[in-house]
Structure formats: C-alpha cells, structure tokens
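Same chain as my last thread, 785 residues:
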Amino acid sequence: MPSPSAPDPSRRTVLATGSALGGVLLTSGLPPQAQAAAAEADAETGRSEAAVAPVDPWRTVLDDADLVWRRAPTTWYEGPFLGNGFLGSGIYAEPGAASTAVRFNIQHSEVQDHRPEFGSLFGLARLPIGYFTLEPVGAITGLDWRLSLRDAELTGTLTTEKGTLSLRALVHNDRSVLAVEVTPSKGEQGFRWVFHPAEAISPRAAFKPLPDGYQGNPPAEVADHNGVSAAVQPLLAGGQHVTAWRERSRGRTRTLYVHVAHSHPRTTALDRALAAVRAADRLPYAALAMPHRAWWHAYYRKSFLSVPDARIQRFYWIQLYKTASAARRDAPVMATCGPWLEPTPWPNTWWNLNAQLEYWLIHGSNHLELDAVTRALSEFRSNLAKEVPAPYGADSLGIPRTTDPHLVNGAASALMGYGVGIPGQDPPTPEVGNLVWALHNVWLSYRHTMDERILRDVLFPLLRGAITYYLHFLEPGPDGRLHLPATFSPEYGGNSRDCNYDLMLLTWGCRTLLESAELLGTSDASAPRWREVLAKLAPYPTDANGFMIGADLPFAKSHRHYSHLLAVYPLYEVTGETADERALIETSLAHWVGFEGALQGYTFTGAASMSALLGKGEDALRYLGELMTRFIQPNTMYKESGPVIETPLSAAQSLHDMVCQSWGGVIRVFPALPAAWTDLMVHRFRTQGAFLLSAHRQGGTTRWVRLVSEAGAPCLVRHGITGPIEVRDGRGRPLRYSAAGDGTIQVPLREGDSALITAKGDRPDLTVRPVRPNADAPRWGLPDA
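reply #2:
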C-alpha cells in the first residue's frame, strides 16, 4: 500500500453420495467412473440440476452467496467482476451515460510497460487496456443480474425502452477469453458493441507528477484481420499488447469473444490474440461454458465452511471466488487490484503487506494451486540479488516495496525512495524486511503441505540470503546485545534504531533457518551466527503502551499498518501463553486501534486475527463487523484512494483464525468462536503439518473432529470436546493417543491415516451440511433498496 503445491483441483474432484439430510457423507464416496459421470452431468446447464440441488452442500452455500443486482452498478466497487488470474473484467454502467451503455472493462495482469529507468510505478507499471460498451437501442430502464459463484458466470437481463437484452458472460478459465452471449428481444436486435482503447500510460500519472522524460505510449491501432478486429498497442520499449475480438451470430443470439495477449520485446501478441479468438468463436457459448464450469465446481469442493452468520458466510464464499478469479500459480503475483486495473496510484505489486495478505486464505481453504508467491520468488530469484545495494548483492537478497511481476523495481529507489535501502545510511525509508515477510508466506505453504521441495529449493536458500543482508548491519552495543541501525517500519513515518518490524522478522528468520537446516540435514556455516542473533538480539522495544515502532520511536499516532506487531501476528513469536505476554498483546492491540483517523480496513482484519489468537471470539467478530460496516463495498471490494483487494481476502483469513489455528505444532479446533455461533461446520480445512480437518459444532458443543494426515507429521490437536473422549481410525477401530496437557492430545498418524475424535460413547452424524443462519441478511451486490 500502500502499503510446489497441491495438484490442480480439476484432478482432485471429490463427489460423494448424498443422504436424505441433504449432506455429503465423509465415509462414503462414488467410484471413479461415477465421479466422472456426475462431474460431467453437473457441468451441463439444465442436466441433473434438480437431483443435485437438494443434496449438495456446496451448491447450497454457493447459490446462497450469489451476488445480485436490481439496481445499476455505477462503479467498479459496486459491479460484477469476472477473471481467471490473467484476464479480468469489471462490469458497471458507463460513467456519464448510465442510461445508454454498460461497460465491460478489459484488463490483464501481464500487460505492463517495460521502461525500468522510470521505476516500478511508472516505467514498469501495469497498463490500462480499454473497455467495451454494450449499447442498447433504447434507454436502459432496469436490470436484473446475478453473479453465479458456482459457475463463475454473470447472467441476467437489461430492460430498455425498446425491449430486453438477456445476457450470459464469463472469463473462460482455460482459454482466457471473455465471452458475452446476448439474446435481444425484437426491439433490441440493433444493439451494438464498441471497443474503447485506453491511453497506454501508467495509472499513477493521474495522481502523481510524471518523472522527467516519461511519456505515454503511442495510441493503439485498430484494424480488421480477416473478420477478427484487433487493437494493437505498440510499446515504446518494444513489443505490444493486443486486444482481439469477434462477434458471432447464431439465430437470435450474438456472442462476443475477446482475448488479450502481451509480448515484449517481440511483436508476437497479435498472432496469438487472433488465434485465440478464432479458436474460441467456433464454439457456441454453452460449449465454452461446460469445461469452465467443471473447473470451478471442482475448485470449490476442495474445502467447505459454514457459519451461522449469513452475511459473513456469503462474504467468505465470495472471497474464494474472488481469489480464483484473481490468482493462479502461473499468473503474476496479484497487484494491488488484482487483474482488474482501475484508476489507481498503485499500479503494481506491493510487498510490505498487500501481497502477503492476498494469499493467506489459500492455505486453510486448501487451495495451494493458487500460490503464485512461492512460484514467483523462486522463478525470479536472480532479481532479488539486484535489488539490494552494491556491494551486498554477492551474498544477500531483498525485495523493495514495489516491483513488477518479475520482482524488478527499476529506478524506483532513485525516483521515490522505495528501494530496499541501507540501514542507518539510506534516507528516507530503508525498508528492509519485506522479503523475509514474503518468505513467511512460502513457509506457510511448506508447513501446510510438508513438501520438502518448497523448504529445500525455495525457502531455505532465499531466506538465507534475506537474513544475510541483515547480518551485515547488526552492531554490538554496550549492553552486550546486537542492535540494528535505523530502518523504516512500513507506513508509520520516521526511521528508528531497533525497529520492531525488522527485529521481529529477523528473529523469525534465524529461528526458521536453524529449524530448516535441521530438517534438511544441512550443516550451514552461518548457523553459529544465527544462534548468536537469537541469543543476543536486542529485545523488542516496548513502553507503557505496548510495542513501540522502534527504540527511538513510540507508537503515538493513528496508523493503519500492524508492522510493529508482526511477532504477534502472523509470526506467532509472541503468543500470550504467559500472563505477561498476554497483557503485552492486549495493551498493544488496544493502543493501536485506539487512535482513530488513519485506521483502514486491514487494521480490523489484523485486530480480528490477534483477538482470535487470544481466544476472544466476540472481539474478533466485532472487528470484522467494523470492517463490513465501514469499509467493504457492495460487491465486497475495497478501496483506499484506489482499488485494493488485500483487505477482503485477509478478512477471510481472520475467519479462518477464528475457526482453526495450527501455529506452534498444535491444531486448535474452534479456538475463538463468538457465543452466537453455536453451530458450525468445517470440512477439509488444511492445517500446518499437512492435515485435513473436518469438524462439527452443534448446539454450542463440538460433536466431532476428524483429521486426515497427508504427510505423517506429528499430530497434536486441541479438540475442544469436553469430558472423556474416544479416538478411532478410518475403520472405526480404537486409536491410541496420549494427553499432552491443556486439552491437547497427541495421536500417532502415519501418512494417509485418519483419526475421528468424539465424546466417549457418542456416535454423531458425520454428514457435511450447511448450518442454519441465526438471522437473514441482505445479499451482496445491489439488491432491492
């Protein structure tokens, strides 16, 4: 702002038999042939719909979470959005002409400039592409739209003075094609599509002065290519991006097909864009939709969560839709607004909070196939050495505040002061810890999969380089401690010695390196130095108000970022397990959120997760309520001077933290639920240690907990079931377990084994089904006023 994962879900679809209670049984599944047949049937419009709907819990919660519009959205923050991690479209009334046109924005996460001499926010910025307007014959008088999460499609009608336009739209999962099918009534047969190319200039130009010598790219050139139209945008740095489209008529129905391609420095995008449109337009919309829907149906079935708060449950499933619309492992790490580029002062990827928060929810929701952070840091690691000042690049790595998708910052440090910087020497903002924080996300991916390749090939070597950069600057003080020269705590303003942002990340990094070396059986020459840091590093600066920004800088003004609190969350280095630690967390949290003025949405998601750490479910829910009321927009998007998407996605992680926590090697089931949430269902929630958790809370009591081990890691679980318990394996046989204190048990599970924990003598229903909401709530979107 601003601040190697799991297989593709299409290969892991799990369809299980239903019961009369409308759920899916954990203990029985269809044979592979029946699974394939059911998946195929489920993907086709109108086929098996009635048979599936009453018994499918995923369909029930997803249909309930669909966004609806009875009023015209007038901004990106109100309208439907489609995407596949690359191509994105936000849909709303044409500004200034709401009665005459609807805008379908066309943006792409790979389309950027390539002039590093102007920095990441101008010379390497994402570039706007343009938009189509759907222009009816008559003035628009009404609309009725529905964004189906399950199918990732927009459907509905536009009503005009001349008739109606029925439409269906999707951004195809595999083909990266926007397809919009329109069926007009007789009076609207003359509707038209018009493409409006955007000026290929950094969006930041509308907010900040242009760097000396910077100019926008030349205008796009629109031409026909044997029946396919294309807008070719040449780039001053070489290369091009191309928007190609064609409209096909089949009976009364007309379908628009759109594809975007980008190439640099070669000019190959035109041929690729034309070929993609020609391949897609041979298929009618229904044929295109079948594999698209199949991918999305399988995607959702990788996990399940139902809570008795209808508004929050719908919000949660929309975030899963949003994440898969904005992220893919092989797509660029999400920029501040995902693939939907709107006017923004932040037209690239931010690494001092945004990228980290955007991807947290993929772990618990069991969607590691979306992990672009691990892939990008590994693929472009050579650029990380170039982003630390000379002469440290020989052994050190770093990442600046902002980069393009290839982790290149360009000349931003010279233009804006956004480079990694040199502690104690480099004004104005030596922001050093961003790479370590980004690698915490990689560590989470390792811990949730226990995939040693992530640890060996990505986390260990990159974290070693990031920590080595710190080690160059640690200085012994007269107190015998190691101290850091002045660095910058993101967004607070002012540098400080022993900055908590850096001390906390340095502590976590050295501890993680030592643990990783032991797991990998590696003898590293730097290990003694890492141990010395843990033994002698200056303590985190605190005062009567809790954690300070740094030794020279108290926390004394409103501040949206929790950069000074990372040891509490998400690092879990300070967890409140002693009375003094708990008091420190409580004091720091209250002091932080007690300053109104600069607080923003992710302030409240961080506060909710910290409250969940302390087991304070009521406080966590209250903070999420503040977020929903004050910041979340009608379509669940979020803005701070421009569109940013990390906050709603991190709110889904805050919900995860209320439902399950697995830091410190212990799985904590339902650790921070508010009293009103007496019923709750979670299924295939992924935890650290590579366990899949399913559990049911009913009438305020945890009825059962089931864990499946994917890696054979030690299994310690704080199950929350009162009184004597039974633990049984997948065949119902008793499993030995041992008490580990504080309501925790240790269960020996090998890879592939499972354990079911219940109260002694209880044989609860293990059906996965949605829980009943405590009260109704309006849908997201713009329903009837």
